[in-house]
Amino acid sequence: MSFHKMFSFLRELQKNNNKEWMDANRDEYEQVRDWYKSWLNELDAELGKIDKNYHSTEGKRAINRINNNLLYHPNKPIYKDHFGAGLDLSENGKQGDFYIHLGVNGCFLAGGFWNPKKETLDSIRDAIDYNGAEFKKILNKKSFKDTFTKMIKDENKLKTSPKGYSQDHEHIDLLRRKSFAVKHDVTQKEVMQDDFKEKCVEVYKEMLPFRNYLNKAVTV
Fold this sequence. Notes:
Elements: H1 3-15, H2 19-24, H3 26-50, H4 59-62, E1 82-87, E2 98-103, E3 106-113, H5 118-140, H6 142-148, H7 172-175, E4 180-186, H8 188-191, H9 196-219
Antiparallel strand pairs: 1-2, 2-3, 3-4
């Protein structure tokens, strides 16, 4: 089993996104899924070696369901055209995970908080208000910018200042955001290379100060 097999399965699923096809090919799906869980277990062990605060996350917990939630998104296909997985999951669910997205239409490694709840967003804004300079130092580090360019564009960003903050706040550009997340795009070719696990470890290391800042903000 391999990532090559994973992408091959996903391409066929994209062309045959229906229950009948999935039922007929469920054995193949389960083989791919179970192999990926084992691969995630190996990556999980590697990440635990480099981060003393890492929350070990078994592959079976990390991997997302392949079924779309049609209750809330009835117009989506029955099945996703990607495998998503979140590592470094805390027991209380409050901290942002290290997310791996491997799909037909794109692959990336990401982390942070995307459209968090009001309580979480308020905590992040409080941290930026108190010490936004530290956060900007992380964002402006050359190796960080080389890896992630900048935070993912926030379509819901406020046009005015959030309640309780002045328009001329020195960190107003950050305080207006409603999402704080970064991603590093990878190609299918990169994913299928023998050193992809090492690639994930390097991206995790570079993302760690960014995630630590946000996780501290929402847990303190």
